[in-house]
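User: I would dearly like some help making sense of a protein record. This is the protein in question:
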Amino acid sequence: MGSNRLILDNKNCPQILKANTIVIKVGSSILVDPIKNTIKQDWLNSFLDEIAVLKKNNKKIIIVSSGSIALGKSVLKLTSKKLKLDESQASAAIGQIKLAQSYDLILKKYNINTAQVLLTSDDSQNRRRYLNIRSTLKSLLNMGIIPIVNENDTVATEEIKFGDNDRLAAQVALITEANLLILLSDIDGLYEKDPNLNPNTKHLPVINEVTKKMLEMASQSTSINSKGGMITKLEAAKIAMNGGCEMIIANGLKNFPLSNFSYKKEKFTRFIPKDDIKTLRKQWILSIKTKGKLFLDKGAIEAINNHKSLLPAGVIKAIGKFERGDAVEIISENNEKVGQGLSGYSYSEVEKIKGCKSNEIEEKLGHPGRVALIHIDDLVLS
C-alpha cells in the first residue's frame, strides 16, 4: 500500500468512515486538462485507487462526473469557450464514451464494475421516472456496481437541464438516501469572501445553514471547463442538508484528493444536515428544478408556516413559465425563498386568480378550480 493511499479510521475523516452510501462529484476543472481537453490520467488513477479502498471497506459509491463536453471538444477540434447547443450536444455524445471508458478501464483493474447513468432534470421531475431512477441506482449499488452519473448533455436543452453537476449530485444523493456527498472542486470550501479577490479572507470549516448572505457573496467559477461556481455548490448544499445528507466541499486538484482532506488535514468545508429529515416525497419536491416563483403576502407566509395549504388569495405576483404540476419557489415579501412546491395551476391561471378568494376562482377561470394553489402535501419549507 502506497503512502498516499486512503486510510479509513476515526482519526482521519469520520464522515467517510461512518457513511454507508457516498456520492462523489468530480468537476471538469480537476479531471480535464483545460488546455489539451484530455483527462488528467495520473489524477484519475490516484482517485480511483482511493475508490477501491472505499469499496473494500463495503462503501456504496456513486461518482457524478463532469467532463464529456470538454473531452468531445478535443476530438472535434472546437476551441471556442462558449459552444453552440448543437456543438455542445455533439461534443457530449463523443466525450461521454471516452469519459465512461476511462473510469471503467481503471476500475476493472480492481475487479470493480461500472455502469453509465445519464440523466436530465426532466427525469427527476416526473414522479414515476424519479422512482425508476431510484430503483435502478439502488439495484446497481446492491450488486456492487459503481454508477458513473452525468447529465445527458447529448439531448438536454435549457428547459430540461440540471445546469450543473453540483445540483445533479445533490439530487442523486437524495434519490439514493446517501449519507455523504463530496464535491471535489478547484477550491477548498467556503470563505467569507471570494478568496481570489480577498487572499486573507476567513475559511469557514462548518456550515449549519446556507443563508441568503452566503448566496449573495458566492462567487461564480472562473474555471474554463466548469459550468458552476460556489453559488451552485451552495444550492446543492441546501438540497443535501434538507434531505439529511452531509455535504463536503474539498479541493480535488492534487492527486489522491480524498486522502488530502481526510487525513492530511487540508482545509475543507462541512455542511451539516438538518435533523428534521423530510419524507422521501418532500425530499423529491425540494430537489426539483423550479420553473417559476410565487411571491406571497405576510398572511400567506404565516399560513404555510402553520402547515396550511397555499391559497390564491395570498399570492401577490407570479414569475416564470410554469404549468400545472411544475415546481415553483415560494418567496416572501422580503424577497427570501421560504420553500417550494408543486403548483396546482399554470402561470396563466395564477395571473387570473392571484389575490382572489376561493369563491371567486370559478368566475375568474370560467370553470371550477381547486381551492389550494399548492396543497400542503406538495409544499416543502426550506
